[in-house]
């Protein structure tokens, strides 16, 4: 999940939604969120070398992607709990919830500012 994947996935998501095709935006938004998190982790070697911490951050990113797609942070956390991680400690659940809330609030504020 690098920069090239992020660029192509974002472009494909924009074009498919703009074309009016009956395609879901939820899956690509999760992938875009995880790609962004992966790119932002690369400069921090202490995080990128620790696989457990990397999984926690990617779980939070997946929760943020679902939160943005549906506008439901709790749904994002539950999706992340069910699909992304096979081991989900309480600490990760709270981190995912905070990340999903920040993403949902940011989307709401951004939509108010742009209108």
Automatic annotation (TrEMBL):
Predominant cellular place of this UniProt entry's protein: membrane
Subcellular location field: Membrane
Entry GO CC: early endosome; Golgi apparatus; plasma membrane
Lineage: superkingdom: Eukaryota
Keywords in alphabetical order: Chloride, Ion transport, Membrane, Signal, Transmembrane, Transmembrane helix, Transport
Pfam families reported for this sequence: Voltage_CLC
Residues in the signal sequence: 1-20
SUPFAM superfamilies: Clc chloride channel (SSF81340)
One Gene Ontology MF term: voltage-gated chloride channel activity
Membrane topology: Multi-pass membrane protein
Transmembrane segments: 57-81, 93-113
Protein name: H(+)/Cl(-) exchange transporter 5
Gene transcribed to yield this protein: CLCN5
